[in-house]
Amino acid sequence: MIDPTAYDQADFIPDGHSYFERWATAAEAFREFMPAERMKLDVAYGAGERQRFDLFLPEGEPKGLFFFIHGGFWRISGRKDWSHLAAGAVARGWAVAIPSYPLAPQARISEITRSIAQALEAAAARVDGPILISGHSAGGHLTMRMVCPDVDLPDAVRARIAGILPISPLADLNPLIMLPMNGDLRIDAAEAETESPIFYPEPNCAVEIEVGSAERPVFVDQAIRMADAWIKAELIVAEGCHHFDVIDPLCDPESPMMQRLFAMAEG
What we know:
Number of domains: 1
CATH class: Alpha Beta
Radius of gyration: 17 Å
InterPro entries: AB_hydrolase_3, AB_hydrolase_fold, GDXG_lipolytic_enzyme
GO molecular function: hydrolase activity
Keywords: Hydrolase
Number of helices: 9
Structural class: alpha/beta
Distance between the termini: 44 Å
Number of strands: 8
Protein name: Acetyl esterase/lipase
Organism: Aliiruegeria lutimaris
Helix content: 25-40%
C-alpha cells in the first residue's frame, strides 16, 4: 500500500506553503519589468478558456523557442504564476512560451497532453529555430510526452525539438491511481499505460532529467527509473534541492542547468 502522502510537497518543505504566493509575485514582477513590445500575452491556441500561452521575446531575433510547462499535478496553477522562469532563456536570446492548459477534474491527463501539443504547435509557428522543452513535476511528465511517438505533432515541429529537460518529472502514473488525488485525476489502468512516458521508446533528441536530492523519495525514484528506461538520457541530481527550489536555476542565464540546456541546441 502506498503512503497517501508520498507525493505531497508543501507540508514536507520548510515554509512550503509560501512558495505559491512567492512564485506569483515574482512572475508579476517579471512581466512588469519586460518591455510591452517584447511580450505577447494570452495568445489563444484553442477554443478553451485555459488554452492560452504567454510569449516573451528577447532583444533581436530569437535563437529559438524555449517552451516551459508548469506543474501542479495537472490540477492547479497557470501560466501567470511562472513568467519569471522565462528570465534565463530570454537573457540568452531565446523566445519563451509558457502555456496554461485545461485542468483536472474537468480534463483527463490524456486531454491535457493533447492540449499541450496544440500549444507547442501554435508557439512553434510564431518562432523559428530549434525548440527546447522543459517542465516541472506534472509539467515534466508533459515535457516527456511531447517526444513520445503517439503524440500528434507535425513532423516539421517534431524535427525542430533539439532537447528536453524534465525537472522532477512524473514518469510512471500507475502509483497515482492509489492516491487521494486520483479522485480528480481519474487515472485508470489504461490511461496509466498510455500516458506514462516510461513505457515509450526514448526519443532521438537530447534528454536531461533533473531532480533534487532533498525531494520526496518517490520523485527521486521516478527520475532514476525514467533515466534507466531512456538509457541515453542524462540524470542530474541537484544536491540539497527540494521540489520547490529545484527550478530556480531557470531564472539564471549562467546557471549550470541553463548552460546544459542550451548546449542541447548547439550540439
